[in-house]
Amino acid sequence: MTPTPPLFLLLLGLIGAQATTAVDLRTAAAMAAGLCKTRPTDIVFIIDSSRSVRPSEFEQVKVFLAKVIEGLDVGPNATRVGVVNYASRVKNEVSLKTHKTKAGLIKAVTKIEPLSTGTMTGLSIQFALNVAFSEAEGARVKSPDISKVAIIVTDGRPQDNVKDVAQRARDAGIEIFAIGVGRVDMSTLKQMASEPLDDHVDYVESYSVIEKLTKKFQEAFCVSDLCATGDHDCEQVCISSPGSYKCACKDGFTLMDDGRSCSACSNSATDVVFLIDGSKSVRPENFELVKKWINQIIDKLDVSDSKAHVGLVQYSSSVRQEFPLGRYNNKKDLKDAVKKMAYMERGTMTGQALRHLIDNSFSAGQGARPGVTKVGIVFTDGRSQDYIGDAAKKAKEHGFKMYAVGVGNAVEDELKEIASEPTGEHYFYTADFKTMTQIAKKLQINICQEEDPCECDSLVKFQKKVEDALQALTKKYILDFR
Length: 482
Known about the structure:
Elements: H1 6-32, E1 36-38, E2 41-48, H2 55-70, E3 79-86, E4 90-94, H3 102-110, H4 121-132, E5 147-154, H5 163-171, E6 174-181, H6 186-192, H7 197-200, E7 201-204, H8 214-220, E8 222-224, H9 226-229, E9 237-241, E10 244-248, E11 254-255, E12 262-263, E13 270-277, H10 284-300, E14 308-315, E15 319-323, H11 331-339, H12 350-361, E16 373-380, H13 389-397, E17 401-407, H14 412-418, H15 423-426, E18 427-430, H16 436-442, H17 453-481
Helix pairs in contact: 2-3, 2-8, 4-5, 10-11, 10-16, 12-13
Pfam families: FXa_inhibition, Matrilin_ccoil, VWA
GO molecular function: calcium ion binding
Signal peptide: 1-22
């Protein structure tokens, strides 16, 4: 086997160092710009206040804790912090459930007093495992989305065993950082800490310089807001999540299969739900015209398993789902299901129907697909008997493209309130049910026009002529130059 050239190894080392530096710089920049959040974490500080820790040194430990906490995103749904104080005995100074604000937490830390006896580090870890990280004390249920972290600060050799209890804590999913000060026993730190030890074991010469570790721990829990830092490739909208992001599109655009680019066409994937007024004012003969109108629009959609899905909801004094999104993936079955819809009669609770659309029709449990355009088409023939404002606003805030269609006694102000912007393209009104077919022709759910193959052929021919002309000019230039 040919030995690896030393220069090649050197280059690999340089590349690795540059990549690490780039990550560190991005994290530092994110922190400096205030674009850093901490992932949801339950953190418990375990601090040694034995006789060997002088009162002034213990104050420096508390300053270190306060500075680390200052860089955390503290809150019930973000990072929760607890503090365990130990010497020969263990005291739970701050529970994970106690303080929901950063200010309250830091104030509680400043009031902690040293215990000033022995050094039972193993006992403190056991206490943290059994009590501090328990649900009764505010720890959250074990989940891949919630980290459990213990940060141990000690300056001496423990008077009990730490190896076995630290292993049990790590096996329970607790990540352990061990900080040693002064004459600490380094082998004990390594027995307690999680792997890799280089990342989880720290040493400082004295408590006077423990603050220099503040930045390390702030960065350890920092998750950059990749959308805010611009570290993403979304074409239109970036939605942040801890340490990651997902792309979305503006109203009227569809997220493409690559997960980042957007198309103004909805012939790729669209979830369409019809919300149909079946109140008694519609009348049976007109309700049949409404069903024909629905099927006219379905005819214009590219219905398939991977393209347009259609759901149907009818409402009057109550709301009834006729069929959910995705149940029928071809036009024939869809149109047959629409024809079978039975007329409800009774009242006109449009607000209730809109709430059903938001909470149920466009939910994953009812067949809605993540990352595709959601289109709601509301039909009504009269004034709503309940308030529609909040639900209409919420539907648009959720990013749903809302069309409002009114006939007869429908209130145009209500239609405009339901419709997406620009309202001129999203609300329609006609006085007579018999002219609804004209609305079906005008209502376009951003259907893309297919390319004209003749135009494509012409373009290819034109391109060929240009290439031939360029080649002729090139030959002429070369001959003239000679």
